[in-house]
Amino acid sequence: MENCWDVLEWLGPDTSTSVFMCLNDPSDLVRASAVSRSWRRFVILNGFSKNLCKRICPEISNFTRVIEVRSSERSVEVGSSSAIEWESLEREHKVYTNLSYCLVSPKGKKDCIVDAISASSTDNYPDERIDNTLEPRDQVDTRPSYWSSGGQVDPGVPETLTYRLISRLCIVDEIKIQPFKAFFQFGDPIYSAKSVRFRMGYSRPSQGTGSCVTDGYAKSHADADDNYSWMYVSPEFPMVQENVLQSFKLPRPVICIGGIVQIELLGRVQKQAMDSLYYICVCHVQVMGRPLSPVLEVDIRGTVGNSVLKYFPDASFGEDEARESRWHAFAARIRHLGAGRGWNLNTFFDP
């Protein structure tokens, strides 16, 4: 066809780059790369898919490189100094295009918690342990089900609840918490916090193991930071003193690299009449998001900002749904069987 020209050539590389950097939807980049071979080459060479992921979710910057892993082939590194050829750039484009769709898609959203790791304090262990917050009901077999902090004279003393997610790589955009209403106390007091804040990251290598008694104590009286590296800290959200499942939406989707979420409960509002101490009690917690396994996994190489993103093209998100559902059901049965028996549940859930 005569009198046709390529808009990219007409605009020039600098202006064209500025235009493409204004695209905020992964679908727009896919459509642009499908216009012609030259447009596709321009999109891939300039890494627009990766840049879009980083704009949506800055945690992407922690991935120093990408590895593609096939079941029948040797792993192929993407983005390293020895792999700057076109094939490598094309693989990187594929990986980040996939990830960008996951970041903006509402599909597959679910409660991602698989295990309760520890609480900063527990008033009456194991009856008021953190595991109770995984039970959606506030009563089980006519008994109240909730976690309670230790009592404090100072209402400003914070508490933390730490959880493990179903995958070491999850997109999280919302956390739900239900304060506990003590229906067995006069006036039905609600032991909520004043506000909440959330941290996401990974667990550091453990230094040895302890006995069941030691593990139980550690689970109910855990230090907030000694065992974890945090890669994201949320703003502070106010909590209302109501016995409802309260939703706290994050300002943007967050990739939880490492699969650990910690809830900071800041400030106390309710004093218990019998001892005049302040408590915080929670009956249910959900971390809403989307696990990225088995298609995407992460290999954390010791320090923050030194993570390797693994891409498994032979896997699919759909095939993992049934396995996750069965695992959640199994975990729920184990927690129910272990209730009141003093079992060390970390034996079942630690990876």
TrEMBL record:
Coiled coil: none
One Pfam family it belongs to: F-box-like
InterPro entries the record matches: At4g00755-like, F-box-like_dom_sf, F-box_dom
Domain annotation F-box: ranges: 18-43
Domain of life: Eukaryota
Stated name of the protein: F-box protein At4g00755
Organism field: Elaeis guineensis var. tenera
